[in-house]
């Protein structure tokens, strides 16, 4: 993710490699957060379609 953000010229972000469902919105670290960018794990389902084709 850091590489993708750097390529896009993003400079005002902080990566937090955490389980999104386990993060509390009341956590003081996220008090000033305005946006969240999620990068969900890949299921690999697209690979199956590609291999069949």
From TrEMBL:
One function term, GO molecular function aspect: methyltransferase activity
Keywords annotated in UniProt: Methyltransferase, RNA-binding, S-adenosyl-L-methionine, Transferase
Residues of the SAM-dependent MTase RsmB/NOP-type domain: 1-53
Superkingdom of origin organism: Eukaryota
Chain sites annotated for binding S-adenosyl-L-methionine: 19, 39
Membrane listed as a keyword: no
GO BP terms in the entry: methylation
Matching InterPro entries: MeTrfase_RsmB-F_NOP2_dom (IPR001678), SAM-dependent_MTases_sf (IPR029063)
Family, as annotated: Belongs to the class I-like SAM-binding methyltransferase superfamily. RsmB/NOP family.
Name recorded for this polypeptide: SAM-dependent MTase RsmB/NOP-type domain-containing protein
């Amino acid at each position: 993710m850091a590489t993708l953000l750097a390529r896009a010229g993003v400079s005002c972000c902080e990566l937090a490699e955490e389980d999104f469902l386990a993060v509390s919105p009341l956590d003081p670290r996220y008090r000033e957060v305005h946006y969240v960018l999620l990068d969900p794990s890949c299921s690999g389902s697209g690979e199956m379609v590609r291999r069949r084709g």
